[in-house]
Amino acid sequence: MSLQGKKVIITGATSGIGRELTLQLSEKGCIVGITGRRKHLLEELSGEMTGKSFIRQMDVSKPEEAQQELLSLIDEMGGLDIIVLNAGVSSKNREFKWEPERNLIDTNVTGFCALLNTAYHHFAEQRSGHIVGISSIASFLPNPGSMGYNASKAFISNYMQGVRLRIKKAGLPIDVTDILPGYIYTPMTEHRNDMFWVSTVDKGTAQIVRAIEKKKFKAYITRRWFWVAALVRNIPHRVWKYIS
Ligand SMILES: NC(=O)c1ccc[n+]([C@@H]2O[C@H](COP(=O)([O-])OP(=O)(O)OC[C@H]3O[C@@H](n4cnc5c(N)ncnc54)[C@H](OP(=O)(O)O)[C@@H]3O)[C@@H](O)[C@H]2O)c1
Predict the structure, then answer these.
(1) Is residue 230 part of a domain?
(2) Distance between CA atoms of residues 202 and 185, nearest Å
(3) Position 137 pLDDT exceeds 90
(4) Which of 68, 115, 125, 211 is most buried by a 10 A CB count?
(5) Is residue 2 part of a domain?
(6) How many CB atoms lie within 10 A of CB 198?
(7) Ligand 1 centroid – CA 180 distance (Å)
C-alpha cells in the first residue's frame, strides 16, 4: 500500500522511534500529526519535516484530556487514516516502588487503551483505518527488574489481538499491526549496557514503516527477534528463575 497522502498521527513523536518514524513517513508523502508532552521538541521536529505537519501537545497519562486532544487533532487534519500508538515509558524500578509502577501503567496501558478506543470508534464510523501499536519483545520475557514494563507490553500485544478479532467479527475494514521491537538505540535505551542485537533507530524504524505499508498483523524489529520469540514462548515457567 502506498503511504503517499495518508494522514497519520503518531503519539510520542518527540524522541527516539516516534521522531524517526515521523521523519520517514513525512519523506514518504504522509501528512503527519505529531504529539507528545514536550512542545518545543514537536516544533523543532515540525521544522525538519519535508511534508505537511500538525502539532498537538498531549500527555497520554491523562486519558480523557488526551482523547479530546486526539479528536480535535483529527478534526484539524481533516481526517485520519493511520494512528501509531508509540508513546511509552520504561522503568527499571528495582526497589519495586508504587509511584513509578503507576506512572508506567497510566502511560503504557491506560493511555494506550484510551487513544486506541477513540481511534477505533473514529475508524469504525468512517469504515476504514489502520491501528499500529508499539509493543516490545519484552511482552514475552518476564523480568524481575522491569515487571511493569514487560507486563504493559504483554497487555498491548494481547489487547491488539483482541481488537483485531473484534474488528473481524464486526466486519469492519480496519487493520491492526502489532510492532515488537527488540533493542533499538534511543534515549530510552542509551544508558543500558546489557543489550545485544541493537538496531540503529533509522534501520529499525525503516522496518516499522515497511510493516505499516504491508499492513502486517505482527512485525518483529529487527526480524531475527522472531526466532527468539518462537524459542522463549515454549520455556516452562520454572526454568525462568535460572535465566532471568
Ligand atoms: N528503544 C527500544 O529498544 C524499544 C524496544 C521495544 C519497544 N520500545 C517502545 O517504543 C516506544 C518508543 O520508545 P523509544 O525507544 O523511542 O523511547 P523514547 O525515545 O524515550 O521516546 C518515548 C516517547 O514517548 C513519549 N511519552 C512518554 N510518556 C508520555 C506521556 N505521558 N504522554 C505523551 N507522550 C509520552 C515521549 O514524549 P514526551 O516525553 O515529550 O512526552 C517520547 O516521545 C515505546 O513505547 C517503547 O516502549 C522501544
Answers:
(1) yes
(2) 9
(3) yes
(4) 115
(5) no
(6) 13
(7) 14
- Torsion of Cα atoms, 78 then 162 then 111 then 27, to 10°: -50
Helices (H), the chain: 16-27, 39-48, 63-77, 98-104, 112-126, 147-170, 201-213, 225-232, 240-243
Q: Using a 6 Å CB cutoff, which residues line ligand 1?
A: 11-18, 36-38, 41, 58-61, 86-90, 107, 134, 136, 181, 183-184, 186-189
The rounded Å distance from CA 1 to ligand 1 centre is 26
How many independent structural domains does the chain possess? 1
Encode pLDDT of 199-214 as tens digits: 999 999 999 999 999 9
164 located within any domain: yes
- CATH code of the domain containing 192: 3.40.50.720
- The residue segments making up the domain with residue 178 are 7-243
Exposed e or buried b for every residue in 96-108, given b needs 16+ CB within 10 A?
Answer: eeeebbeebbbbb
